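So, could you explain this one?
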Amino acid sequence: MRIPNLIVMVAACSGLWSCGAGRPPQQAATVNVEVTSPVRRPGLWRQAMLVEGSQGLSVLSLCLDASADRQLSWWGSSRGLRQGCSQNRVEQRPNGAWRFKSVCEGPGGAKTETSGEAVGNFNENYQLRAETTTRNSSIVELMGTRTISIDAEWQGPCPGGMRPGDARLDNGMTVNLLELAASAAPQL
């Protein structure tokens, strides 16, 4: 896997393209009750991801506990990147799908707009499709519009040696997405 593709893939998983969780969910337009977005079951999640423009399917294994799930939400947000989000909405559709949209600004005038939909029970599996547009980023590989598709499946407890936030990439490399997002946030 070439390094630019690694940057794009990890950015998609860690939320470098969007800001989302941490604020109260918005109410659905036709419902007068607050919608609580789903949480993923703690443990190891296998995520098969296709990022438009990258070289094929990437697979990673992501270790989550409740705290890491809140910080690395299923729609790609990272707690360290939430400041500067002028729009941040998650709502459940009548068909059970979850729609999400965020518009966020980062350091240096980087602006990311993300929208998409997810389906599944988030306890055993879910599928997500999103479109992300990034402008004015100092990270050239993040610029432009991309479509991201993720098929995620719960695998069981996290294996020994993996801590919450760890992602084992399909090339065998392990990175901690929480640390990566925290260190990359000022570079946007």
